[in-house]
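Message: Study each token:
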Amino acid sequence: QVELVESGGGSVQTGGSLRLSCAASDSRYITRSCVGWFRQAPGKEREAVADLDTSGLAIYADSVKGRFTISKDNAENNLYLQMNNLKPEDTAMYYCAAAAHWYCQALRADIFDYWGQGTQVTVSS
């Protein structure tokens, strides 16, 4: 079992940047697991943003390619999501997730076993 806690959300204007962090209570779920970021806007289904496997392979949703970067700091048990050039359509609750295994499956949410509580990102025009 691992606890994931997100932080770094907030309100920014279009074109701004935010860096989300996800702290894991157990470092193994950062260093040895597939990890990812998802988001859910009001009235919409949850969607994948990015995932990252233990080989360093990152996959991004088309909507965020070139603007968002997923990374991790194994020494600090943290997962990050750097978000640049934010748009109003990026407004959502953002969640980090960790799997109980090292491999990801192309942004599939059902492979993740642990989820954080979320951090709100609001982008105004």
About this structure: The mean pLDDT is 95. The radius of gyration is 13 Å.
